[in-house]
Each structure stands twice: as structure tokens, then as C-alpha cells.
Amino acid sequence: MSGYDHTQVQEFWQWRWEQEDVYTLPENATDPTYVLGMFPYTSGSLHMGHVRNYAITDAIARYRRMQDEAVLHPMGWDAFGLPAENAAEERLTDPESWTRSCIDRMRDDMESLGFGYDWSREITTCDPDYYQWNQWLFLQLLEEDLVDYRGATVNWCPDCETSLADAQVDHINGEEVCWRCETPVTTRELDQWFFTITEYADELLDGLDELDGWQDSIRERQRNWIGRQEGWTVTFEVPAVGAVETFTTRLDTIYGATYIAVAPTHDLAKAAATEDPDVADYLADPPESSRGVKTGFSATHPRTGEELPVYVGSYVLEDVGTGAVMGVPAHNERDFAFARANGIPVQRVIEPVDGEDPLPDEPFTGDGMLTNSDEYDGLASAAARSQIAADSESVETSRTYRLNDWLISRQRYWGTPIPIVHCADCGAVPVPESDLPIELPDYEHTTGNPLEATPDFIETTCPECGGDARRETDTMDTFVDSSWYFLRFLSPEYEDGPVDPDLAREWMPIDVYVGGEEHAVLHLLYIRFMTKALADLGLLEDREPVTTLRGIGTVLYDGEKMSKTKRNVVAPHEYGPETTRFFVLSAAHPTQDFEWTAKDVGDAYDFQQTVYDLVADAADRQEWRTDRRAADEYLERAIDRSIVAVTAEYDRFRFHRVAAELRELARLFNRYRNYGTPHEDVYRRGLRALAAMISPMTPHLGEELWNLLRGEGLVVEAAWPEPTAAVPDYDLERTLIHGTREDVREIIDVVDIEDPEQIELVVAQDWKHRAYEQAREADAADAIVGEIQAAAEDADPDRVSAYAGDLEGAVPGLDPVLAPDTEREILTEAAWLFEDEFGATLTVRQATDGEDLAERARPGKPAIRIE
Ligand code: ANZ
Ligand code: ZN
Fold first, then answer.
1. Going along 348-502, which residue ranges are E strands?
2. Mean pLDDT, the chain, integer
3. Nearest CA to ligand 1 atom 27
4. 156 CA distance to ligand 1 centroid (A)?
């Protein structure tokens, strides 16, 4: 028998798949199952995280195809982005050439791994054919008022020389750093383009409740990111200047407000700075500490009429609430620290109700009972909030969000040009649709934004007045490219819009979307936003893009994430592509992190060899049996049980459990063929089922096995195996067999039986089963004795009440068991396993009252005698 030659087998089957065109989804397919892995950023070659991600989607796609579903399983390239520019600078090439060579390498990697993609739908975001639709979408959103152009303080990475969205700022050791290069982030004031995603804040938040197919952890992170807070705005008049609006969630503390504080970028702060150099200094370099600066303004307390000092405080965030707060030092930690640092009085207005007095030196931040609050004294916090709101004209209920508008401007070359022209007379003018795409010019090696250094690109005429104008040099955040790419896969050639609306109606949403947990917030929020916006444009019907989402864990090496910078990368090919695939799938639940170990990879390799040997042996076999024996009945049922179990595990994406099931099945086959001459039909069916069930995880091996077994056609197109008989209680059957074999082993071991000859299994009497079922259905222990006695009235009352007493202690929580006949049948079929393992003959019978084994037999746990 020859060994399994991975390389040869892989090349051959890849060629066959291509020849048969098995992965191309016909354009007229009705409602295919859409399986998508987050498309890769084109950074070089595939890493282990990619392999894991795409092995999962590929297994799902193959499994669903064998379930007779049409499957859409495409792949493409997230090809724009800053690293391409950096790489181009380092290697003296240009971003496009570098990106294209990465794509070629990654596509080769994917093909050698045997991922079954419909390559006819391949998309690349740096193709003008693709990014023209970014520009088109920008114009549509602009028309819908979902685009804003405004001066804003932006996070700035001095190293990448570009602005960063909030979510691209990482926090390392309390410092804000760039997500790409970890350079500390500074700020800049720039005119910027935004998508006003905040318009959808409520829908983005509320919609999460309906997304049952998403992990709770991801939904929770989105909720926190959107950060909706219900509260009130309270307006304080500022004589001579106007008014200041503050946002609070604790209106009940209003009588404790002893000052007003505004963010350094607040209008009031700017106004104060023009008159007061101290304030101007403060704004120029706002401190990290609680130190504030007092302005000359005062604000009138809307309830007491008192004049409160107005401060500028860097702890007040410009983009939270209104960028201004009423300071209540007695009941808020940050306000307390600020009051301390700036000599502001503290006024207590809430008493704790549980009697515990707060320390005099600490704020009390809980709800309680009002004091020092005029007519509201004695009210509880919650009641006081609604009462004060109802009584005060200057108070409005209000919601605020942590979510900000999506800043899409990047001051870089390698991205989609924003289709805008700046005209001295007409302002920012959108480029007419007919002029799209605005293509990127050739790359210039410069510092800063290469587009600024390309006069041919910049100099243009105004679409409105025809005068001289300047092209916008900002390009779009690459998250714009990926916010709708899943739609382009439906109709990659469509020319009248980003997607054919008829196909979108039928094929969307994505049925299963799989990707790294690091995208739990940004990317997944942006695709949800874009879907809703496109629905409002009339292009889509669905308002959510993804039905079932799986975020996947990380592959670790020595406890650390495998990554290029850590130099602990194992290339997918080191152990052979299919072994790598099988290993990453069988190592852990998809959402779990797991450790790469050479031993586990070796096991994955060996298992493929084992399965191959089993099948090759059967293919060569001359001698078969045709009469059916108990062992064959057992095998038949065990195969059915495996099919049911494996199917359930695939449905839940638990590939590691599939692998465990298949290992067990292979062990059983091995035992069976060593036990005696196999029954041809039963054994061949089992091996074919094994080949089919392993093929979503190891497709090349699957084809090879299928071929050896003379299966019809290709396994990738074969039907998923079906059980011959229903096995609703397959797990009970297994528990019974495993448990009983375990018990026999233990007895032989404990009693130290040298050479067992006879094993007798005695199944519990019918009345015990009936009593057991009564007890199992009872939700409480009391009163079951009577019911049990009624259920077992044909049996000896003393025995019944003794058994009822036993059961009473175990209610509730009795495990389900098989009916006595089934129990006997299953054990009888398993007799050969006992004989094989223990070298003894096995008999199975039911207990009769009076014999001593009958006392010990329990439903699901036969009495055992060994001689
Ligand atoms: C008065 C007050 C009294 C507040 C009190 C709290 C407790 P949390 O605390 O997370 O629920 N706030 C509002 N806008 C802010 C801004 N731009 N920068 C910093 N802080 C701001 O968030 C709500 C509270 O955060 C608000 O309620 C406000 O302080 C503060 F005993 O108002 B509170
Ligand atoms: Zn003009």
C-alpha cells in the first residue's frame, strides 16, 4: 500500500475542479447561500490568521453545497491603504506595483490551499472599475445630506502624515498611538469630509437586538461604541454672551452645581481666549491634569438664579454631549477632582438612603434622597429627575452618543480620490457623475501627500462656473472600500450602479460572514451603516447586511499572536497546505484562540494518513462478506449516529467537534475491519460517508478517497450523506455504549479478573423504566412517590417504594434514557465490541424481579456480571 502523496493529490484535484468549473455560481441562481470571509488586506502573503479564516468559510461553503444549496463564495482584495505607500517608499517601487504583486502571491497561496472560490467574481478595490463606485456612492450620500465638510480637530499621525478616525487610535500604556505604526497621535485642525453615520445611531443601536445570529460579545462592543446615553440638556444663561448648553445624566443634582466647565474647543472658551491671555495659553496646550482656567464669564443657575463661574477644563470632551457640563463636585468624581484643583466649593445635595454616610472627602455618586434642593428636598433621585425636568423651561430631555461621524478624509495617495472640486467662487463642488471615475495619477515619491505634488491632477476647471479650480486631494478611508464590497460580488460587471438591485434583492443578506474579532466595531458598523444608507437610496431592500456572523480567535505561537513583527510566523506551506487547513479547523472552536504546536500539526497529518490507509485497504480488498451479522447492524447504526452528529456540528460551525467525531469513526472502522471480514455494502457505505464528511475540511483528501471508493462524480458535488434510519437519540445510544464499556473495564480492573469469559448485561425491568420516566417528568421531588407507585402498580410495592426513594434524591435533573427494548437492542448490537475488547462473550437480557442482578439494574445503566 502506498503512502498518501499530498502534493500530487492536491495538484490533480485542483486541476479537476477547475476543469469542471465547480465553484462558479451561475448568474441565474436563485437565492444562493452567501458565505463570505472578510476579504484580506493585500499585505504580502497569506498568514495563519487568513488560513484559519478562509478554511472556516471554505468548509462552510463546501458543506452547504453538499447540502444541495447553491453557494456564493467569492474572494477579492482590500487593496488600498497606507502600508502600500510605505512599502513602495522602502522598496523604491510604487504602491500599485507592490499591491499587484502581493495580490498575485496571495491568490497563489489561496489556490494551493484549495479554497473553492468563484474567481469569476474577483474584485480589487484599487481598480478604477471598483473605486468609481466609491465615488458614485459619495455623490449619492452627498445628495442625501449624509456627507459633511467641516473644519475639525482631527487625530493626526505625524509618521503616516495622515488623519486617523477615533477607532484608529489605539491606547498603549495610557498613550494615544496610531493603530498602524504606534507613533503617538497629535491633533490638527483641517477641513475634512465626513459621512454622518450619527444620523443612523439609533437604528444601528436598536437593530442589534434583532441580530440573533451575531455573537453577544460583538453586539455588546457595538453597543458600547455607539454609547447612547439618555439625559437632559440644561441651558445656563451667560449674560452678555448668550447661553451655554450642558449635558447631564444626573438632573437630580442640579442644586449641587457650583460651576460650569466647557471643553477647550468650545465657542465660549474661544471667546474668552480673545480677551484673556491665560485662557489663550490654556487652549494652546490643554493640560492632562484637572487644572482648569477661569474665564471672566458667569452663568445663571436656572433654578436658584445664582451666578456660577465658567471654567475651561480639558476633562470636558468636545464630542461628548454638548461639550459643556454643569460641575457637581459633591457627586461626580471628575468634577470633584476639578473642584479640588481649582478651589471651587462643594455642595452636597444627595443623601444616601441606606444610611451609610459617605466619607467627607469623597463624592457620593449613587442615587439617593435630595437635600439642599428647595422644594425637591426629600424626593428620591429618580422622581426628582422627572419632576425637575417637568418644572424647568431650561431643561430638555436629550440623548447623546459616543459615536461620532465617520471621518473619511485621508491626506494620502493610495486611496479613492474624493470626487470634489474646490472653486474660489462656487466653493466645494461635486464632480458630475458622468466624469467618474476620477482616476489616481501616477505615483510621485514625495513626503506628505503625493497628490499635492501632481499639478496635472490638481488643476482642473469648476463644473459649475467653468473657472479655474483645484481638485480635492484627500482620498477616502479604506474602510469606505470595504463598507459595501460584499455587494459588488453579486454583479462585479454591473455598469449602472455598484450592484444590480434585482440580484441584491434576491441574494442579500450575507448568510454567513466570518472574520477577525478586531473588526467587531469599525468594519461591522460601517457595513451596517452603508446597508441602511443604500436601502434609503432605494438600492437595497435589506437594512442589515449579515444574518450570521462569526468572529474568529487568534492563532498563537508560544502564547503570542503569530505576526510578522514578532517573527513567529509559520508559513501555511511548511506542513503542507491541507494539513495546515485541517489543523487550524480541528484545533479549537472558531471563536477561541489556540496555540500552534508541531505535535498537533503532526497529529493532523497522521490522521489524514490513517484515513487514506483505511480506504486504500478497502479499495484493494478482494474478500468481502455478504451475510449480515450483529456487528454490521452495529456499524450501520454507528455510521448513522456519526452522520447525525457531524451534521449537527457543521451546522454550528464546530469543526473541531467534527474532527473529533471523524477520528472516532475512523477508530471504529479500524476495529471493525480487524474484527473479521467486513460486510461489503455496510463498510463501503461507511467509508463513503467518512470521505464525504471529511471533504469540507480536507477537500483534496476527500476527492481522493471518494475516487478510491468509486463514488459517483466529484465529492465536492456529491450529496451529503443521510442516515439509513432515524437516530433521534444518537447521543443516548452512545452514552449507553460508552458508559457500559467503561463500567465493564472498571469491574475487570477493580475485581482483577484475569481472563473474563462471560459478560452478562442485565437491563432494568420495565416498571423501573416507567417509574424513572415519571420521576424525570416531575419538576419537584415531593409527591413523586405516589405517582411512581401508580405507574408501577404491577410490581412488588416494597421494591417500588425502595426504588422511588432512590429516585427522589435525584429529582429534578434525571438524564433521559432509552426505552428498555431499545436499550437491549443497542447493547446486543454492540456485543462484538465487548468481545473484541475483552475477549469474552456477551449476553444481554432483561432483569426479572427476585434475582439479585435485578436490584442493581437501572434504566440506562444495566447490571453487569462478569465470569
Ligand atoms: C452633572 C452630574 C452630576 C453628572 C453627577 C454626573 C454625576 P456618565 O457619568 O458616564 O454617565 N459629561 C457630560 N458631557 C461631558 C463632556 N463633554 N465631557 C466630560 N463629561 C461630560 O456620563 C454622563 C455625565 O458625564 C454627565 O452627567 C456629565 O456629568 C458628564 F452627580 O452632569 B453629569
Ligand atoms: Zn466655480
1. 350-351, 369-370, 395-400, 406-407, 409-410, 420-423, 427-430, 459-461, 468-471, 475-476
2. 92
3. 248
4. 27
